[in-house]
Every structure is written in structure tokens, then in C-alpha cells.
């Protein structure tokens, strides 16, 4: 199955209004729920990207709009994640994958082959 992409305005994301990225950081895509932040120099209250290595999802929030990409397989997940990483690297924005301090989350990223991208 191909990668699924969903797009939402902030008023339709989940069941609440999401007017800045912090609803993702501290709830919708929190580290405690298994998400990792894809850190870039572009991160701001109006922009952020998160990835879930077990759900094969990447969520991007930009100025009130939300895009969710869902892969069916690990290979598809790596494809969309590396597309994001490569674009950020080529534009000088890349910092790394931040799974927080949770050892299980860190190990999941390592097991999937992303150890060199964790920061």
C-alpha cells in the first residue's frame, strides 16, 4: 500500500484547536507517547516535525496546518523520513532526531538503524 498523506487545518486536528506546535510537543506527539522530534533550525512556535518509529508516522505542523504521513512498512517509513532529513540537510536546517531521554525510545531508533541521526 502506498504511503498515506493526510492534511488538516488547525481547527480540525484531533478534537481540539491546535494554534501552535506545543500541543504536539506536550500531548499529541509527545515523547511519552513514543514520538521523537525531528529537530531543525527552523523549529518555532509555528513549525515542528515529529516521527513515531513504531507507528511509521511523520507529523509536520506549519502555521496551523498539519500533515500526517503514514507508511505501511519500515522501508516506506525510512523513505519518507530520509526525504525529510535530506531536504533539511540540503538546506542547512538539519539538527537530528530527538527521542528524549527515554532509553526504550532511544533503543527503538537505534534498532531501526538511525543511531547516527540521534542527538
Textual characterization of the structure:
The chain is of the alpha+beta class and 119 residues long. The protein has one domain (4-112). Helix content is 28%, strand content 29%. It has a six-stranded antiparallel sheet with strand order 1-5-4-3-2-6, covered by helices on one side. The longest helix is centred in the last third of the chain and has 17 residues, at 74-90. The protein is globular and about 35 Å long.
Helix segment tally: 3
Mean pLDDT: 87
Helix/strand-derived class? Answer: alpha+beta
> How much helix, percentage-wise, in residues?
25-40%
Order of helices and strands: EHEEEEHEH
Based on the model shown, name its key terms.
single chain, 119 residues, alpha+beta, 6-stranded antiparallel sheet, 29% strand, globular
Amino acid at each position: 500500500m502506498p504511503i498515506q498523506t493526510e492534511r488538516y487545518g488547525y481547527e480540525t486536528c484531533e478534537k481540539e484547536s491546535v494554534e501552535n506546535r506545543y500541543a504536539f510537543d506536550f500531548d499529541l506527539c509527545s515523547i511519552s507517547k513514543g514520538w521523537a522530534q525531528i529537530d531543525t533550525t527552523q523549529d518555532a512556535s509555528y513549525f515542528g516535525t515529529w516521527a513515531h518509529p513504531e507507528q511509521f508516522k511523520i507529523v509536520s505542523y506549519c502555521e496551523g496546518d498539519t500533515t500526517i504521513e503514514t507508511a505501511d512498512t519500515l522501508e516506506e517509513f525510512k523513505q519518507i523520513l530520509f526525504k525529510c532529513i535530506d531536504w533539511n540537510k540540503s538546506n542547512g536546517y538539519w539538527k537530528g532526531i530527538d527521542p528524549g531521554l527515554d532509553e526504550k525510545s532511544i533503543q527503538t531508533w537505534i534498532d531501526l538503524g538511525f543511531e547516527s541521526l540521534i542527538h
